[in-house]
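User: Please predict the structure of the protein below. I'd like the answer in structure-token form so I can feed it into my own downstream comparison script.

Assistant: Understood. Taking the following sequence of 75 residues as input:
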Amino acid sequence: MTKMLDEAVAKVRTLSEVEQDHVAAMLLGFADRDADSSQLTAEQVAEVELARQEAKQGRFASDEEMAELWRQFGL
């Protein structure tokens, strides 16, 4: 275990059991992740590239379009 991780564990030990469980769940989720899960798919890369090109062209959603999008998500 690295010194930094050891220090982090020592601090986590001072937290409540509920907080310790939250930290443990995050750590386990990180440690158990599939190495490929953090990679973008080809479709996602294409979407990012399209968005970058639109931004370069100054093509952004209007305030009205954004307001409608937020409404769709209940925000």
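That's the full token string. The chain is about 70% helix and 0% strand.
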